[in-house]
Amino acid sequence: MFIELYNCNNYYHRMMIREMADNDYTKKYLGEINNDTFFNKETYVFKDLSNNYIGFISCSLPVETHYGISITLYYAIHHKYQNKGYGSKMLELFENFIKENKKIDIIVLNIESDNYASLKVAQKNNFSIAYQDDENYIYTKFLTKKRSL
Known about the structure:
With about 150 residues, this protein is α+β, with helices and mostly antiparallel strands. The protein has helices at about 10-20, 25-30, 85-100, 115-125; strands at about 5, 40-50, 55-60, 65, 70-75, 105-110, 130, 135-140.
Protein backbone atom coordinates (compact mmCIF):
# COMPACT_ATOMS: atom_id res chain seq x y z
CA MET A 1 0.00 0.00 0.00
CA PHE A 2 1.45 3.34 -1.02
CA ILE A 3 -0.43 6.61 -0.75
CA GLU A 4 0.70 10.22 -0.96
CA LEU A 5 -0.47 13.42 0.70
CA TYR A 6 -1.41 16.54 -1.30
CA ASN A 7 -2.52 19.93 -0.04
CA CYS A 8 -6.05 20.59 -1.28
CA ASN A 9 -5.23 23.60 -3.37
CA ASN A 10 -7.09 23.17 -6.61
CA TYR A 11 -10.61 22.83 -7.90
CA TYR A 12 -10.22 19.17 -8.94
CA HIS A 13 -9.12 18.12 -5.45
CA ARG A 14 -12.10 19.96 -3.99
CA MET A 15 -14.51 18.22 -6.32
CA MET A 16 -13.09 14.82 -5.32
CA ILE A 17 -13.53 15.69 -1.64
CA ARG A 18 -17.14 16.65 -2.28
CA GLU A 19 -17.67 13.31 -4.01
CA MET A 20 -16.04 11.35 -1.16
CA ALA A 21 -18.06 13.19 1.44
CA ASP A 22 -21.36 12.65 -0.30
CA ASN A 23 -22.85 10.37 2.33
CA ASP A 24 -24.95 11.09 5.41
CA TYR A 25 -22.37 9.88 7.93
CA THR A 26 -19.61 12.17 6.65
CA LYS A 27 -21.94 15.14 6.23
CA LYS A 28 -22.96 14.78 9.86
CA TYR A 29 -19.42 15.74 10.90
CA LEU A 30 -18.18 17.95 8.13
CA GLY A 31 -21.41 19.68 7.27
CA GLU A 32 -22.48 20.36 3.76
CA ILE A 33 -19.34 20.61 1.66
CA ASN A 34 -21.03 22.47 -1.16
CA ASN A 35 -19.74 25.78 0.13
CA ASP A 36 -16.21 27.09 0.39
CA THR A 37 -16.31 27.62 4.18
CA PHE A 38 -15.11 24.06 4.62
CA PHE A 39 -12.02 24.79 2.55
CA ASN A 40 -10.91 27.63 4.83
CA LYS A 41 -9.52 24.83 6.99
CA GLU A 42 -6.35 23.06 5.98
CA THR A 43 -7.46 20.10 3.93
CA TYR A 44 -5.29 17.39 2.41
CA VAL A 45 -6.16 14.66 -0.06
CA PHE A 46 -4.54 11.24 -0.30
CA LYS A 47 -4.00 9.45 -3.61
CA ASP A 48 -2.43 6.13 -4.54
CA LEU A 49 0.21 5.60 -7.24
CA SER A 50 -2.50 5.33 -9.89
CA ASN A 51 -3.84 8.79 -8.88
CA ASN A 52 -6.99 7.31 -7.35
CA TYR A 53 -8.38 9.41 -4.53
CA ILE A 54 -8.31 7.45 -1.27
CA GLY A 55 -9.60 10.02 1.20
CA PHE A 56 -8.94 13.33 2.86
CA ILE A 57 -8.04 14.86 6.21
CA SER A 58 -9.09 18.32 7.29
CA CYS A 59 -7.73 19.94 10.41
CA SER A 60 -9.07 22.70 12.60
CA LEU A 61 -7.16 25.88 13.17
CA PRO A 62 -4.53 25.44 15.91
CA VAL A 63 -5.75 26.21 19.42
CA GLU A 64 -3.51 27.11 22.34
CA THR A 65 -4.37 24.96 25.37
CA HIS A 66 -2.86 24.38 28.79
CA TYR A 67 -1.10 21.33 27.32
CA GLY A 68 0.21 22.98 24.15
CA ILE A 69 -1.01 23.79 20.66
CA SER A 70 -3.79 21.46 19.56
CA ILE A 71 -5.56 20.62 16.30
CA THR A 72 -8.62 18.46 15.73
CA LEU A 73 -8.63 16.22 12.67
CA TYR A 74 -11.63 15.22 10.55
CA TYR A 75 -11.28 12.64 7.83
CA ALA A 76 -13.17 10.54 5.35
CA ILE A 77 -12.20 7.61 3.17
CA HIS A 78 -13.76 6.87 -0.19
CA HIS A 79 -16.16 3.93 0.20
CA LYS A 80 -14.09 1.79 -2.21
CA TYR A 81 -11.11 1.98 0.17
CA GLN A 82 -12.81 1.58 3.54
CA ASN A 83 -11.84 -1.30 5.87
CA LYS A 84 -8.56 -1.91 4.04
CA GLY A 85 -6.10 -0.10 6.33
CA TYR A 86 -6.07 3.18 4.44
CA GLY A 87 -7.42 5.20 7.38
CA SER A 88 -4.53 4.09 9.57
CA LYS A 89 -2.00 4.83 6.84
CA MET A 90 -3.51 8.27 6.13
CA LEU A 91 -3.37 9.19 9.81
CA GLU A 92 0.22 7.95 10.08
CA LEU A 93 1.31 9.98 7.04
CA PHE A 94 -0.49 13.07 8.26
CA GLU A 95 1.03 12.78 11.73
CA ASN A 96 4.51 12.62 10.16
CA PHE A 97 3.65 15.64 8.00
CA ILE A 98 2.54 17.58 11.09
CA LYS A 99 5.72 16.70 12.99
CA GLU A 100 7.91 17.87 10.11
CA ASN A 101 6.01 20.99 9.02
CA LYS A 102 3.91 22.39 11.87
CA LYS A 103 4.39 23.42 15.47
CA ILE A 104 1.63 21.26 16.91
CA ASP A 105 1.81 19.50 20.28
CA ILE A 106 -1.48 17.57 20.31
CA ILE A 107 -3.69 15.89 17.73
CA VAL A 108 -7.32 15.36 18.75
CA LEU A 109 -9.85 12.97 17.22
CA ASN A 110 -13.55 13.15 18.15
CA ILE A 111 -15.10 9.79 17.25
CA GLU A 112 -18.68 8.64 17.67
CA SER A 113 -18.91 5.54 19.85
CA ASP A 114 -20.52 3.49 17.05
CA ASN A 115 -17.83 4.34 14.48
CA TYR A 116 -15.85 1.14 15.10
CA ALA A 117 -13.55 1.58 12.12
CA SER A 118 -12.38 5.01 13.33
CA LEU A 119 -11.99 3.77 16.89
CA LYS A 120 -9.73 1.04 15.54
CA VAL A 121 -7.74 3.58 13.49
CA ALA A 122 -7.16 5.73 16.59
CA GLN A 123 -6.01 2.76 18.66
CA LYS A 124 -3.77 1.39 15.89
CA ASN A 125 -2.07 4.80 15.66
CA ASN A 126 -1.43 4.93 19.43
CA PHE A 127 -3.95 7.61 20.34
CA SER A 128 -5.15 7.61 23.95
CA ILE A 129 -8.70 8.07 25.20
CA ALA A 130 -8.94 11.45 26.91
CA TYR A 131 -12.71 11.40 27.41
CA GLN A 132 -15.68 9.21 26.64
CA ASP A 133 -19.41 9.22 27.15
CA ASP A 134 -22.29 7.25 25.63
CA GLU A 135 -21.97 9.02 22.28
CA ASN A 136 -18.34 10.02 21.74
CA TYR A 137 -14.73 9.18 22.36
CA ILE A 138 -12.14 11.93 22.42
CA TYR A 139 -8.74 10.54 21.51
CA THR A 140 -5.51 12.52 21.83
CA LYS A 141 -1.92 12.03 20.84
CA PHE A 142 0.92 14.14 22.15
CA LEU A 143 3.58 14.83 19.55
CA THR A 144 5.93 16.63 21.91
CA LYS A 145 7.07 16.06 25.48
CA LYS A 146 4.40 18.33 26.99
CA ARG A 147 2.34 17.30 30.00
CA SER A 148 -0.27 14.66 29.33
CA LEU A 149 -3.96 14.99 30.26
